[in-house]
């Protein structure tokens, strides 16, 4: 995004009624940004960080309190960055709060199929995703989505379900459209492991894609795979009472997203280790994105 030039009026006064000239001038460059604030880092008096396009200096020991905070620990040092800034998060795709560098940091061992470009290309399908509410809410939602994706795919390693013995089980032949791609064709694929013929049908209808007849698109096209994950995140409540998107933008917390995705198997004490795995990833990811996790982390 480009910043409009500042027009400065210079009165050129001449001896017999001279004209005034309006000349464009560039705004002065802002200070360089300090290293980004990290939720898990410990800061002491004098440490300087950047957060949301401004530099902040710690007055005393602090950890986990994002600038400007509420305790008065952070002193505002003013705007930072170039006079013609890019996105709020340098290196991020326009409108997305996660940069490619941060994405790579989150998933250092990811399968090459799961590209950052595929993810950003999929965002247009659900423009409200990670783009609703405050900057903190946007970052928390992105972190929550990616943390659950991390858990479902082993760190974005697995493109398809690993237990092939399950493959024939995902055909509900009682549906009027049946299983035209074959009984064993609707196994888990993609970032949230889309499975069952009725889910492929619903996702395909919503996205305008022939997923019922060609479910292999989800494992062959990175953007399609990401779109199916965003379809579930933004439109399905699963075992919960709301979509994961609504859980994050309405302050219900990360735990409610777990309930929607796999609550029938994990929540209510059924599998605390799996729940904690998701929480650990979420806390790590909000740290990378420079924000706090909020409350209600578990289900």
Automatic annotation (TrEMBL):
<dbReference type="InterPro" id="IPR000726">
    <property type="entry name" value="Glyco_hydro_19_cat"/>
</dbReference>
<dbReference type="GO" id="GO:0005975">
    <property type="term" value="P:carbohydrate metabolic process"/>
</dbReference>
<dbReference type="InterPro" id="IPR003610">
    <property type="entry name" value="CBM5/12"/>
</dbReference>
<feature type="disulfide bond">
    <location>
        <begin position="171"/>
        <end position="179"/>
    </location>
</feature>
<dbReference type="GO" id="GO:0006032">
    <property type="term" value="P:chitin catabolic process"/>
</dbReference>
<protein>
    <submittedName>
        <fullName>Predicted chitinase</fullName>
    </submittedName>
</protein>
<feature type="domain" description="Chitin-binding type-3">
    <location>
        <begin position="34"/>
        <end position="77"/>
    </location>
</feature>
<dbReference type="GO" id="GO:0030246">
    <property type="term" value="F:carbohydrate binding"/>
</dbReference>
<dbReference type="Pfam" id="PF00182">
    <property type="entry name" value="Glyco_hydro_19"/>
</dbReference>
<keyword id="KW-0732">Signal</keyword>
<dbReference type="InterPro" id="IPR023346">
    <property type="entry name" value="Lysozyme-like_dom_sf"/>
</dbReference>
<keyword id="KW-1015">Disulfide bond</keyword>
<feature type="region of interest" description="Disordered">
    <location>
        <begin position="64"/>
        <end position="84"/>
    </location>
</feature>
<dbReference type="GO" id="GO:0005576">
    <property type="term" value="C:extracellular region"/>
</dbReference>
<feature type="active site" description="Proton donor">
    <location>
        <position position="152"/>
    </location>
</feature>
<feature type="disulfide bond">
    <location>
        <begin position="267"/>
        <end position="299"/>
    </location>
</feature>
<keyword id="KW-0611">Plant defense</keyword>
<dbReference type="GO" id="GO:0016998">
    <property type="term" value="P:cell wall macromolecule catabolic process"/>
</dbReference>
<keyword id="KW-0378">Hydrolase</keyword>
<dbReference type="InterPro" id="IPR016283">
    <property type="entry name" value="Glyco_hydro_19"/>
</dbReference>
<dbReference type="InterPro" id="IPR036573">
    <property type="entry name" value="CBM_sf_5/12"/>
</dbReference>
<feature type="signal peptide">
    <location>
        <begin position="1"/>
        <end position="30"/>
    </location>
</feature>
<dbReference type="GO" id="GO:0050832">
    <property type="term" value="P:defense response to fungus"/>
</dbReference>
<dbReference type="Pfam" id="PF02839">
    <property type="entry name" value="CBM_5_12"/>
</dbReference>
<dbReference type="GO" id="GO:0004568">
    <property type="term" value="F:chitinase activity"/>
</dbReference>
